[in-house]
Amino acid sequence: MFSIEQLQAFVATVESGSFSAAARSLNKVQSAISQHIINLEIDSGFDLFDRTGRYPVLTNEGQQLLPHARATLQQHDRLKQSAEQIFNQEQTNLSIAIDEGIPTSQLYGAIHRLLDRYPGVSFEFLAASSVDVIELVVSKRATTGILFSELDLPVGIDFESVGSIEFDVYVSSQHELAQATSPNLENLTLHRQLLIRSKTAKTSSFQKAYSPNVWYADNYYILMDLINRGFGWGVLPTHMVKPLLETGDVVRVPVEFERLTWHANVDVIQHPSCSALPIHKMLRSEIRDLITGSEM
């Protein structure tokens, strides 16, 4: 029967590239790692690594076993986390990290309904870019994150899509781009772009630099103010910019052939150490209703 220690040694060797590096990552001696791998090969009935070179290389059989080993370790981690929380009782402090571009007008009703069910709960609210929201949840600084979908969520983070929000490309009505309809999108690259990125200088998977001249902000309100003041063009959630559109201070960038509007998916994410608990399940459900019930 395979043991958790064997699977840990196997996965660590693959991810670190050698038996010695795996030993360091697991804080064990190399001989223990090697023996775990040998025992796993005996139990499975085939070689996991080709050892003829300087570094171990996965065999075809090892490649087939790897995803199952990783999945088993993830489930083992969830089991340990659930046992710890049953022992320590359910968390009563909820920390919600949310991208400022996501509407929250109906959030307070959702919080009231949660308080009706769990009157002793306390809340903390954190505003951050979507990339920073992921880091906050991974580090358990936040128990729940609401963010625009990212292509590369860390392994093990629980998530679900809860709706979408309309985005478009905007510029000040006084900006050169607003004075005439551009024949194509290439004209945007001739002007300064204003772009969202995280506090650690990471950009979102759907926020890319197209212009060689880029300024950055870590939240949409600063970005919108920079656009309004004529410093360049940028991508904003439509619901945020409506007041400036109504006053005529900001306009959609007029382009002849392309329709620039698109919808960005919104995800709710939670750390697996808390996602299965009833209070967090209810919070996730309320957030789901919040997004689908909002005017996008």
Automatic annotation (TrEMBL):
Keywords assigned by UniProt, alphabetized: DNA-binding, Transcription, Transcription regulation
Pfam families, per the entry: HTH_1, LysR_substrate
Leader peptide range in chain numbering: none
Residue stretches making up the HTH lysR-type domain: 2-59
Stored PROSITE patterns: HTH_LYSR
Superkingdom per UniProt: Bacteria
Family stated for the protein in its record: Belongs to the LysR transcriptional regulatory family.
Entry protein name: LysR family transcriptional regulator
Organism: Vibrio variabilis
